[in-house]
Design a protein that fits this description.
Blueprint lengths: L1 E2 L13 E4 L5 E6 L6 H12 L4 E8 L7 H9 L3 E5 L5 E5 L5 H4 L11 H15 L3 H26 L15 H11 L2 H4 L6 H10 L13 H28 L6
Parallel strand pairs: 3-4, 4-5
Antiparallel strand pairs: 1-2, 2-3, 5-6
Protein name: RiboL-PSP-HEPN domain-containing protein
């Protein structure tokens, strides 16, 4: 455990104590009487901006009294844990456990733009990402895109808006093969879906290489930072592409 030393060269604030955990994230403990100070606010923001995997505990002396609603709301909104401790050193968790700041900076999803069938799985994926399993969260979004792709293919077969019928089992063929088939054979005019064409399918084909990527266990904090940056981008991109595919296929009601 290090005392009042930098946690990362790009972050100025030096917490009271910090140490690297076995998962290569950084546990920080800041002893203070103000759980929503400008210094802590800046620390959290810098960690998010630079994707530093800090899990922050704020330790508050019990003599300070009841924490304000502002302090508690700030902690909950920013993935910070709060512990109250007495003169004997006994602690009581008020908020927490803390979340890695490298994951809490994920862009929020506008669920109002999605049909109801997607809201629950996307909410689950979003919470899973923030709570420390970004690889699985990405996989959940890919599952939704893949399932929609297969429904679109079946609808196109029934509506006869393909240049030729698929010579494979739509449910069992690989996702990439289904996308390649649609890219080559869908007729945007007959389907009534002019946006269901090459560029969209090409982007989706690019996602398939990540479909079964469970993510490697990082061997260092630097590798963890690189992984979290990559998975944040993948997650946000996958959500965007799912929305694009939903909108592009509305006319055939897959």
């Amino acid at each position: 455990m290090k005392a009042e030393e930098e946690v990362d060269p790009l972050v100025e604030f030096r917490p009271t104590l910090h140490s690297t955990l076995t998962d290569k994230s950084i546990i920080c403990i800041e002893v203070t009487e103000n759980a929503s100070s400008s210094e802590l606010n800046e620390f959290v923001l810098e960690c998010r901006n630079h994707v530093v995997p800090v899990k922050l505990w704020v330790a508050i002396p019990k003599v300070v009294g009841v924490l304000s609603t502002k302090d508690l709301a700030f902690a909950k909104a920013n993935g910070i844990g709060i512990i109250e401790f007495d003169e004997q050193g006994n602690g009581r968790q008020l908020v927490g456990p803390p979340l890695s700041q490298s994951l809490t900076g994920l862009r929020a999803i506008d669920f109002s733009g999605f049909p109801s069938r997607y809201k629950e799985p996307l909410q689950a994926a979003f919470e899973m990402f923030k709570n420390g399993n970004p690889a699985k969260a990405c996989s959940l979004v890919y599952d939704e895109i893949e399932a929609l792709t297969r429904r679109i293919t079946k609808k196109c077969v029934s509506k006869r808006c393909l240049k030729k019928d698929p010579q494979f089992d739509v449910d069992k063929a690989s996702w990439s093969n289904v996308l390649e088939f649609l890219k080559t054979n869908i007729d945007p005019t007959l389907s009534g879906c002019p946006a269901l064409k090459g560029p969209l399918f090409s982007r989706l084909i690019g996602l398939t290489e990540y479909r079964n990527d469970a993510g490697h266990k990082p061997s260092s904090t630097k590798k963890l930072i690189e992984r979290d940056k990559q998975l944040r981008t993948r997650f946000e991109s996958a959500v965007d592409e799912l929305k694009t595919l939903i909108d592009a296929s509305k006319a055939i009601k897959p």
